[in-house]
Amino acid sequence: MQESAESSPDSFKLGQRVHSESDPSRIGTVKYVGPVQGYSGMWVGVDWDNGEGKHDGSVNGVRYFQAKSERSGSFVRTQNLSPGISFLEALHIRYKGESTKEEEDEMYVLSASNKRVSVELVGKEKIQDKLSRFEELKGASLPYLGVSTPGNPSDISSLVPNLKELDLTGNLISEWKVYSASYVCLMLNL
């Protein structure tokens, strides 16, 4: 997961898609930003997509927002949420960054006795070198990286001129209509 500077309450707006800093697959929608009676500081009320919150948007009898279910809402400190990153930042993290300990721990197979056996990727440096040459990328997979904005279209078209396929599964773009068809086509060089 990417590291981000501590977010301020101003980083969050109603309707914005966010994810948990500790779990990028835990995605939700901002429904409230402000103080919560009886608790110090600023809070962000989030309605979680997976329904795993603590309440329905009310605390101690005060309603701050309406969650979609009785337990899909929660109040979160800003430092525990990510407002997302740009498409270009995600490309750099995925294809130019070093693999994390977490990712390397996930590289295993199960033996006949159902024990985890680590897998070493032969030629890893060669593969990383090829993937880091953005101008040659024809497809990119950026699942659950917190992509919330595309970035500058001219930067995208010059950085990844041959990109034709893009996987943005589990990211934070809430409305495609805010990106015009020509913008998306330019992004994907169509």
From TrEMBL:
Residues 34-77 form the CAP-Gly domain. SUPFAM superfamilies: Cap-Gly domain. Residues 1-10 have a biased composition (Polar residues). Residues 1-29 are annotated as: Disordered. It comes from the Eukaryota. Transmembrane segments: none annotated. InterPro entries: CAP-Gly_dom_sf, CAP-Gly_domain, Leu-rich_rpt. SMART domains: CAP_GLY. It holds the Pfam family CAP_GLY. This is CAP-Gly domain-containing protein. It comes from Hevea brasiliensis (Para rubber tree).
